[in-house]
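Q: Got a minute? One more chain.
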Amino acid sequence: MLASKLDRFATSYWTNPASGALEIYDQAASGQWSQPPAFPSGAAGLVSTIDDYRAFGQMMLNKGQHGNIGILSRPSVETMTTDQLTSEQKAASGLVPGFFDSHG
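A: Always. Here it is, folded:
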């Protein structure tokens, strides 16, 4: 992350489950996303603008096309948007009960 672009970050907040109070979770200027990660993660760690996120979402809705440019193949998008978890994996999850009824 370039220091000159840190002002574009927003501070992240969360609700403390014990007190119900809104608290700072991650400071924009000094938080976890203000410096490059120790190693790249294929499952997390992307930071971008809302405009880029919208463009990505639109590209996914367009089956891999962004305007007239093919970014991803249609089979890649179909694989990315198809439930890949088995019933056994869903049952072993420690998330909220019923979460995987509509997620995969």
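A: Residues 13 and 24 are 4 Å apart (CA to CA).
Q: Perfect, thanks.
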